[in-house]
Amino acid sequence: MSNRRVLLLLAAFVVGAVAIVAGALTLLPPGPGTVTSQVTIGGPYELVDQDGQAVTQETFAGSPSLVFFGFTHCPDICPTALYEMSQLFEALGPDARKASGLFITVDPERDTPEVLKAYLGSFHPSIQGLSGTPEQIAAVTRAYRAYAKKVPTQGDDYTMDHTAIVYLMDKDGTFIAPFNLKRPPEEAAAELRRYF
């Protein structure tokens, strides 16, 4: 084997080894002193509840919250999520008062406090409806990094595309993780109890 061929094989080996080491280093967790960026979800807001009372994030401080964005004309996703949330609160029994369910409308034009109150009458009383001006709803939607968009349908009617995540917020209003309601209510209740 010629010297040139040996050198080419050696160079290929070195390049491959460097690539493997570089790839492995990117998978390691950041070391001490490394700055990582975290996306903030949630934050201050000013809305009105289903009784027309002004509320802020401080209104629900001291207990964990499950936050869901939706609207009362939603055909299936919203009522399903609210039903599952109701089942969770039922499974909590007396502990249901130690947590909040917040249904924040993405359709403030139609979802007035009165409409929300009538709609939520079919679900567990621990779930409260929140509305506000279009600007207030846009602000809280941005704060939670949620998505909502009006989609025209027939005539002057419309529906809303929106995020279908249930946000688990701790006692201080800090986002913990998306909350999975697609499981037995007792299992979901057991997880929520960890944040009381």
UniProtKB/TrEMBL annotation:
<feature type="binding site">
    <location>
        <position position="78"/>
    </location>
    <ligand>
        <name>Cu cation</name>
    </ligand>
</feature>
<dbReference type="InterPro" id="IPR003782">
    <property type="entry name" value="SCO1/SenC"/>
</dbReference>
<dbReference type="InterPro" id="IPR013766">
    <property type="entry name" value="Thioredoxin_domain"/>
</dbReference>
<protein>
    <submittedName>
        <fullName>Protein SCO1/2</fullName>
    </submittedName>
</protein>
<dbReference type="GO" id="GO:0046872">
    <property type="term" value="F:metal ion binding"/>
</dbReference>
<feature type="binding site">
    <location>
        <position position="162"/>
    </location>
    <ligand>
        <name>Cu cation</name>
    </ligand>
</feature>
<dbReference type="InterPro" id="IPR036249">
    <property type="entry name" value="Thioredoxin-like_sf"/>
</dbReference>
<feature type="domain" description="Thioredoxin">
    <location>
        <begin position="16"/>
        <end position="196"/>
    </location>
</feature>
<feature type="disulfide bond" description="Redox-active">
    <location>
        <begin position="74"/>
        <end position="78"/>
    </location>
</feature>
<comment type="similarity">
    <text>Belongs to the SCO1/2 family.</text>
</comment>
<keyword id="KW-0186">Copper</keyword>
<feature type="binding site">
    <location>
        <position position="74"/>
    </location>
    <ligand>
        <name>Cu cation</name>
    </ligand>
</feature>
<keyword id="KW-0479">Metal-binding</keyword>
<keyword id="KW-1015">Disulfide bond</keyword>
<dbReference type="Pfam" id="PF02630">
    <property type="entry name" value="SCO1-SenC"/>
</dbReference>
